Amino acid sequence: MKQSIFPSLLLCILVIITGCDKNGNYPGGQVSPYISIYDVKDVYKGTDITLSKDVLYGSTKITGVVVSDHSGGNLPTGLLVMQDRRRLNELRGIALSVGTEAAKYVPGDSLVVDIAGGVLKRVDGIMQITGVSASAITKVSSGNAIAANRVPSNLILATPDKYEATLVVIVKAGFNPLPAPTDTYTGEKVLNDGFGDLTLRTEATASFAKNTLPFLGNFYGIPFNKLVGDNQLVPQMRMRTANDAVVLSSTINVTPLLISGFISDVSGADGNYEYIQFLATRDIDFAVTPYSVVVTNNANASTPTGFPANGWATGGLRTYKLNMNSGKATKGSFFYVGGTGKTINGASSTSMAASNWIKAYNYTLADGEGFGTKTGGLFANSGNASGLAVFAGTTITAASVPLDVLFVSTGGSLFTTTPSTMGYRIGNTDWYDVKNPITLVDQPYYRAGSNTLNMSYTTADLGYFYKMGGEYSVSLGRWMKARTQTNVLLTKTSAITEIEGTGATILK
Description:
By secondary structure, this protein is mainly beta. Helices cover 7% and strands 32% of the residues. The protein has three domains: 37-141, CATH 2.40.50; 153-249, CATH 2.40.50; 253-508, Immunoglobulin-like, CATH 2.60.40.1260. The chain contains five helices and 27 strands. Strand 12 and strand 13 form a beta hairpin.
């Protein structure tokens, strides 16, 4: 039996070896005629290159969907722009210099383009293929959907070549500086989405050039690169038509106080030593204009269990409310709400009694002001979600919408739509949106729709202060740099500067 198996195995091996040529190619195998835009762009090494079968690894054609629309008169003349995801599911785009042919194609057209003989080059900073004839372009279909590609501006600024010639949407963006009521799109304007400043360029001849600028909106467009100096690429986004601007707001709403940090688990026992740090964006007299803060604890042992039927007003060990109805805070200053301990990191640590405490409350002995059961700890230390929200006024119901809100972690019963909708409401902040900013579908709760951002939970019982640094513009009424989490490990002798230095800042 063994004698018959081994000769057969040897014969199979010989067939495999002799069936391949010296280059390792199997007979009959063919290279696909189609190459991804990702790979086409990769052959560019800084100088013009003529595209051939050899240069393109045996391929000669690209396929993709058109994203350019010349009907608005704002794209570079003669450039047909298309994108694909054929390589590693990485979206890449390319511009084809085809003259008047470019205007014949519209977004959603699926094309096959023979690029053999074309020249890949940068013209005024824009990577493009020149020398492509009209006969080299074949339309396969039209009306294909183009998925919205939300990209923060900082990513476009950091890797301009990656996003060049692709369709992107800059979400919840406004203009910097704040436009006057008569300002229009004409020229170069600075868009800010809380992640960076990106130039929006509009030709004076564009059909929408004289439209007035909104306060806040979603802006669709195509980034094209501009060459600055010898080799620096600077992206400039161009809208295609007026429909690429989706107005979200035409009015400025300044949030009067912002959550800038908190400590949820001090070194040692937590009771009466947890506190929240706020930053005032204007002068506040809390006796005249009261506010309230609610903390939610969703540890498995917190009752009532299940989803929060009354949202932030659920009470028990799930939510606890403190009123801010006395004291004052000046614009740009930090102030505190928390336990009566008034120390930086639990018992026997640096005193914070000299800081501005708008509310110091013994939550271990007293129930919350309106709802909430006395507790040894306001925040969850189990890894389940904790959250905190600040509200205008002191009357909170399930329908109340917070002025500012942040969450740590995701565990626990937080949001459901069955048998009825229950959850913790959010407001429009740097992290959350009452409406999905792209689809405009209602999503007024944490964990609903795109409201999935959360802070990371830190190791328990060490004394981490969650510092939430960012830049808030009072004149624009929004975050110019969205908050980011920095975990500051405090000691018993830490100074107040460790939690107030290099944190959230107020811009004029």
